[in-house]
Write a structure and sequence with these properties.
four-stranded antiparallel sheet
Length: 291
Amino acid sequence: MDWTIVSPIRDRLAESPMWHPGEEALYWTDWYGPTLHRKLWGQETVESWTIPGETVLGCLVFAGGGRLLLAVDSGLVIFDPGTGRTTPFAHPDGGREGMVYNDGKLDRFGRLWIGTYELTETDPRGILYCVTPDGTSSIGDAGFASCNGPAFSPDGRVLYFSDSVGRRILAYDVSPATRRLSNRRVFASFTPQEGLPDGLTVDSEGGVWCALYGGGCVVRFSSDGSLHSRHALTCPVTAAVAFGGPDLTTLFVATGWSPGVERATDERLGGGALYALETRFRGLPEPVFAI
């Protein structure tokens, strides 16, 4: 495959790539940094901000006015890149011991769906929350060791969710009229050899793209759940996917170092890099959180 590395930075665990069409910029994070990166299209320079007082940075979404909403140890915070300051916004998980925020995305109706991660990945205490722009939160589903993914169908009526430790992608029906999820079903399942389903994105045709953590590849499913294609990388830790570029046809893949592998070995394999692949598919623009 014609993968290219688009940034000189090698993160311990790159996550949450997000394309900002107004800025023509790609944002992503180092989960362990906890660091936020921004790279303007066509430029080599990468701007980075380390978030003070935090140990992990689970995800980001755009919040308008050049701001971002970040998920960190202390909760959901509004971050201003111009000043480097954070402002508390909400904390639906309430600081439960051994839990941190993980992947999150806005649905097509402007609500944030964000999950939590149990640090040992053995206790199914993870919760998928729905958070509205006024800071109100509710539980969408629960009982997971690691919540990953979420992504939404082009019409916004289906939420896809990675139950990573359960090795499956779930699908739910979503309505703009309620924060309740319904009709939970298994969309795709994976064997131990394939890796753990991690970050998700959806293209304009309704195809679901999934990064397989430990599997060294990205897979695309048609909207009916049938496997469409598999795209291998040299590094085993593929964590998150997103479409970007001016035409939204570039697939970006965030990767990390393999646990227990020497960093020099992992760097030779390309771990921690941000990859890009030109595709015939087109992504969908990410909504803005109207705080």
